[in-house]
Amino acid sequence: MLFLADFSPIKPDFGLLFWSTLFFLIFWLLVGKVAFKGIANGLKERAKSIQESLDEAKKARVEMQNLVSENEQLLAQAREERAQILREAKEAKDQIIAEARERAKSEGQLLINNAKEAIENLKNEAMVDVKNKAGLLALEVAERVLRKELSNDDAQVNYVQTLLKEIK
Amino acid sequence: MYKYLIILLSLLAVQATSFASPEDSTHTQNALHESGDHGQGACGIEQHTEFDAGSTALHHIADANVYSIGPFNLPLPCFLYVPTEGWHVFSSSKFDIGHHGTGHKAINGFVLDGGTVRRVADESFPKTEVQVDGFKHSEEDGKFVSHVCYNGQLYLTDAKSTADFGVFGGGITSFYDFSLTKNSTSLLLMTILLIWVFLSVNSAYKKRKGQAPSGLQNFIEPIFIFIQDDVCKPFLGNKWEKYLPFIMSLFFFVLVLNFYGQIPFFGGANVTGNLAFTMVLAIIAFLVTNFSGNGHYWKHILWPPGVPLYVKVILVPVEIIGVFIKPLTLMLRLFANITAGHLVILVFISLIFIFGNSGESVGASLGASIGSFLLTMFMMAIELIVAFVQAFVFAILTASYIGAATEEAHH
User: Residue B138 pairs with which residues in a beta bridge?
Assistant: First the structure.
């Protein structure tokens, strides 16, 4: 039994040792130091920029949300203000109406009072008039009576006497 | 992290069982690889007739001085160094490459056997361009031996020097091969591709700052982020940026070469399944780990605190061995997984020829084709996962070793 072929891959020959070393070192020094570092840096930079973009997007979203809620707040505030203004306007209207009514009432009263007063005055005047007239009539009547009755002295004295009594 | 561990373990189990099958098929008979017009019967070389799955598989996973894609043999430049002669530089097309990457010519004492350059050290062999008549393969003391036939005479050929120092049957021989081989050419192509891809992706990041990724960027980014976030960050702590280029380089280098080797009909360059390549990565990982090791790390290895002296006697050598075992496992794991995958696929494809008895039985080979097709498709699907997982494992383990070495004291 003969070993006719040589299992040569297990025998490291100097040529391949030399070329392997040379090519690997060239590859390592050139590509390793330039390209692999460059690629690793490029990847790192991209990862950083992606992270930054994500962060920015998140920030923008938060800002958007803030804006939206601010808008909503403003809207609610505006709505509330509107309601308040309306309420106030209504109140003012009611007040004005009430005031007008009040004033009208008081003025009416005043007018009535004045009228009453005027009526009273007129009544009093009329009464005075009537009284005066009645007094005058009574005086006339009394004069005529007295002219007839007080034709003697005694009757006069008696009458004075009774009058005095009455006065007392 | 547990899910990765489970995936990893299950895949390693698949690999471990599948590694056994190619070993059985490496038993081969005395045969010769030369075929065709030259050297039939010359020097008593028998004509190779029977299909040999083991040799075929080993031939295909081996590195070569020629890039064979289908019927085309693309020549590659040879840079050969002989200590006594100096440099020899020529194109491998001069070998007049034939079937199975066998050269029909000898150039300055070099021959091409099975796609690999070998050298005839014999002084009487001509140092010019001559025709050779084939190769005779045999085994001596458990080692593969190749003789070249020239002018009716057999000459011993030397394999190129290897850095295993005899451990795996190699060692220093009469010459060194620094050629741009199939593997190193693939390495070169993939390095250029990776450099182009990553520089253009990098410029895309500069041009399209802060924008969504596009095109190639889209393809690379998920893988990049996966390694960055699941490997670098958890294991390296706050130092992850410092070691990111190294871990990324390891991962993408291994990944792309793993995938490149699995492109069907494209030469199947077994780069990451070659011990030389994994050794280089492991050594660099070892150096980076230990040069970045801080006082805390070394203290725990050399004088572990809070441990009685008699335990230290055992623990310190174990820790020191561990420092070397770690890169050794990195080296062997990647090598074994990728080589095993390639071998299994090759063996499954070889089934067609084994059942077809080298073309004699068409019916059997047709039947085997269907079975082989299904098995190969299944294996290739697994290998795609293995290609990714092994690159990932290499990166994650290296990151964990560096992480352990640079960890700050926390007690």
Answer: B145
Task: Give Cβ neighbours of residue B271 (< 8 Å, ≥ 6 apart).
Answer: B183, B186, B187, B190, B257, B260, B261, B277
Question: How many domains does one find in chain B?
Answer: 2
CA angle B280, B286, B287 (to 5 degrees): 90
Of the candidates B136, B166, B162, the one whose C-alpha atom is nearest the C-alpha of residue A2 is B136
* Band of pLDDT at residue A162, cut at 50, 70 and 90: confident
Contact call for residues B102 and B92 (beta carbons, < 8 A): no
CA distance B50 to B29: 9
B45, part of any domain: no
- pLDDT at residue B141, as a whole number: 77
Please answer whether residues B99 and B306 qualify as being in contact, where contact means their C-beta atoms are separated by less than 8 angstroms. no
Pick the closest to residue B243 from B392, B388, B401, B389 (CA basis). B401
Q: Considering only CA atoms, which of B375, B320, B384, B380 is closest in space to residue B351?
A: B375
B window 286-345, beta carbon within 8 A of A: 335, 339
Closest CA to A18 of A26, A8, A30: A26
Contact by Cβ (8 Å): B175, B109: no
Cα(B325)–Cα(B319) distance, integer angstroms: 10
What's the gap in Å between the CA of A12 and the closest CA on chain B?
4
Q: Tell me the nearest-neighbour CA distance from B29 into chain A, angstroms.
A: 6
Same structural domain for residues B330 and B262?
yes
Give B22's pLDDT tier (boundaries 50, 70, 90).
Answer: very low
Same domain, B100 and B127: yes
Identity of the amino acid at B259:
F
Instruction: Name the token pair of A43.
Output: 């990847």
Calculate the CA B93 to chain-centre distance.
Answer: 24
pLDDT digits (tens, 9 = 90+) for B174-231: 899 999 999 999 999 999 999 999 999 999 888 887 777 888 888 999 999 999 999 9
- Chain B CB contacts of A37 under 8 Å are 244-245
d(C-alpha B67, C-alpha B75), whole Å: 6
Which chain B positions have a beta carbon within 8 Å of A24's beta carbon? 249, 253, 280-281, 284
Which of B123, B157, B180 delimits the end of a domain?
B180
Single pTM value for the model: 0.75
Residues of A (8-47) whose Cβ lies below 8 Å from B: 8-21, 23-28, 30-43, 45-46
The pair of structure tokens assigned to A60 is 């923008």
Given pLDDT bands bounded at 50, 70 and 90, which one contains residue B4?
A: low
Q: What is the residue range of B96's domain? A: 64-180
Per-residue pLDDT at B276 = 93
